[in-house]
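Hey team,

Filing this mostly as a record. A colleague (T.K.) asked me to run one chain through the structure pipeline before their review meeting, and I want the input and output archived in the tracker in case anyone asks later how it was produced. No errors, nothing strange. Just documentation.

Input sequence:
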Amino acid sequence: MNNRIYLFFLFTFCICGHIYPQSKSKADYNYLLYLPKDYFEQTKDYPLLIYLHGGSHKGNDLNKLKEYGLPYVVDQGNDFDFIIVSPQCPDDKYWSSEDWFEPLYAKILAEYRIDRNKVYLTGISMGGYGTFIVAMDYPDKFAAIAPLCGGCNDSDTTRICNLKDIPIWAFHGTDDDLIPISETERIVNALDGCNGKIEFTKLEGEGHGLQFLYEKCPQMYVWMLKQSRLDKP
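Output structure:
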């Protein structure tokens, strides 16, 4: 191959690789669905909150998702102003392995009344990683994200500034011995360099188990509902 042509293709691949996610196969994931109690009494559109579970809840049994996190809080009878969708990642996958978001999002939009300017994403542990990465893949879809004890794969560090216009509230325990707090800190530092909108709450003395926040931190939901894509530049 002519050296000039080879260098052109190499340069194009590197540049595009920094901007766009690698092509992923489409996948349909099963999910739990929560509808606000007044959904069938109204005609309005509702905010959508997508929850990504941690690694221990992979599989094909949706009931596993109710053991902790947002599905657990919903299962306890708590009411929310969101439509909540909680997909389940297969055993041999990660949230970044396939493009599950686009098919799921299209299905939810087609079947339910969704306010597209108020779509939110949150997740814990593996789901915290997934929250960052899916938002990098689809930065124009989310009004805000809230990752718990997450991080970013090395291969995605060049795309962190894709998040700069998305309001982010990240949480991490200072004593996390499974995913060190430095994983979130490096994202915060990178976003500071491109004027990102990130609020970082360091939970002193807390380890990896931050699932209690979904029940004990209602401020997170209040904050989300204040965010809208209409407010983006």
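Quick notes for T.K.: Residues 144 and 166 are 6 Å apart (CA to CA). The chain has one domain: 27-231.
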